[in-house]
Amino acid sequence: MFHIMLRGPLNYYNKDGIVSHSTSVHGRDPILRLVAWEITRSCPLSCRHCRASAQSGPYQGELSTSECFSVLDSIAKMGSCIIILTGGEPMLRSDIFEISRYGTQKGLRMVMATCGSLLTETSCKELRDSGISRISLSIDGADALSHDTFRGVDGAYEIVMKAITLLKDNGIEFQINTTITKSNVGELKKIYETVVELGAVAFHPFLLVPTGRGSALTSEIISAQEYEQVLNEIYEISLEQKILVKPTCAPHYYRILREREREQGRSVTRETHGLDALTKGCLGGQGFAFISHRGIVQICGFLDMEAGDLRSSQYNFQKIWSESTLFKQIRAVNEYHGKCGYCEYRMVCGGCRARAFTINGDFLGEEPQCLYTPASSLSTSDNFKVQR
Questions:
Q1: Of 87, 59, 61, whose CA–CA distance to 311 is shortest?
Q2: Best label site of 20, 76, 110, 223, fewest CB within 10 Å?
Q3: What is the pLDDT of residue 49?
Q4: Residue 39 vs residues 43, 215, 321: alpha-carbon distances, Å
């Protein structure tokens, strides 16, 4: 998985940075900003937390080159956005450079998530020339032993280090993702310091969502209290402003950001906090979508529920984005169940829909890893605003 901070605000924020509606202004669909595309599910590794349970494959039914072009055509008609080529391992597709080049020519920003094992001097040059503007790699431990143990693959850390050197030598920017579990939660600061030292442009700590092979790691899920502590630690790390720090699958970070800033007498506004003030926690179906290796559209890769099938819809992404019942349900934040449906922070948080489904069986249910108790005396009008 791979995320880039959006370059512009989602279209349901007004000029003052206050959330006006859970779907969009004037009843329009949210603007599509980011698509994570599982271009293949095949992978040379078998990481124990993989949401896709990816393995070497081959997998039947993957989209052909021409079908991929049709998908890119459809998305490009909706405007310019970021396309994350992910997997599995996208470098296993022999047409990966063609797909990247085609998307670039269509005006889309093409980026890639890779384990790094297949990167070479030649392939890095081809990626750069095809328009790949950023690569994400994962570091899940403070040193080689910790990372390799987490990944369950000997030499995985060395693979990442070699990949980073290749990317730097070829002028391709990179970000580092880290999946936080009980095994490495105490190493967060050390991992961050390593990421900065390596020259990454961004650090994206992910909070584990127990899906795929990750469902076997329930004992590794940090508690709700630890979750709160980790998000506060991430906030403190972000204050160093050395690189972009973007917690992922951690929607109530945006509550904590506002709480911590308010303690310091500061407001979270576009002018003071830039995109941190204008993005939100869970973007699934609200600026972000996921496409599976078979062309199934989902709100994200961690919630295995179908919003639409690109093949049966003649590769019309816009139709699915606008008409999917699942997307409409996800966008109706005020109708979420439990405290997520009335929390005053719901428009900038929303809770993790995948975690709610995986743990409690209700994708519209309240975030199971959130300790916050919403204010109980909010008026209806106040419910459309966020405490600054």
A1: 61
A2: 223
A3: 52
A4: 11, 23, 19
* pLDDT at res. 326: 97
**Hey, where are the domains in the chain?**
31-332
Dump pLDDT digits (tens) for 135-162.
Answer: 999 999 999 999 998 888 889 999 999 9
> Could you tell me which residues come within 8 angstroms of residue 314 by beta carbon, excluding any fewer than 6 positions away?
none
Phi, psi of 303 (to 5 degrees): -110, 100
Domain 31-332: homologous superfamily in CATH? Aldolase class I (3.20.20.70)
Q: What is the dihedral of CA 284, 289, 292, 293, to 10 degrees?
A: -150
Quick one: tokens of 254?
Answer: 């945006």
Where do we find the tokens 């990944």? 151
Q: In this structure, are residues 304 and 290 in contact, taking their beta carbons and an 8 Å threshold?
A: no
Written as one letter, the residue type at 188 is L
